[in-house]
Amino acid sequence: MEKHYYVYIATNKGRTVLYAGVTNNLLARVNQHKEKIKINSFTAKYKANIIVYYEVYSSIGRALFREKQIKAGSRQKKINLIISVNPDWRNLIKDA
Fold it and tell me: Three-state SS for 35?
């Protein structure tokens, strides 16, 4: 069975923060962000638990490379990336 890796961008209700991350289980990661498993983490502090963008990879190496690219980009580049596939900034993982 092929494994999938997700590079994602999360935001908060006010869209004031953007967080880029990588995981092999997007639903579980969203739940971790919502439940604030790591209480001192960026996502817990800023309530960044709304997934507004994600990409899927079959290689962890490629996923990590892409995450670094996204993190290195400006806020505007992240916004442009989100808008390119999700112009309304919908929560793409509503059921988590």
Answer: helix
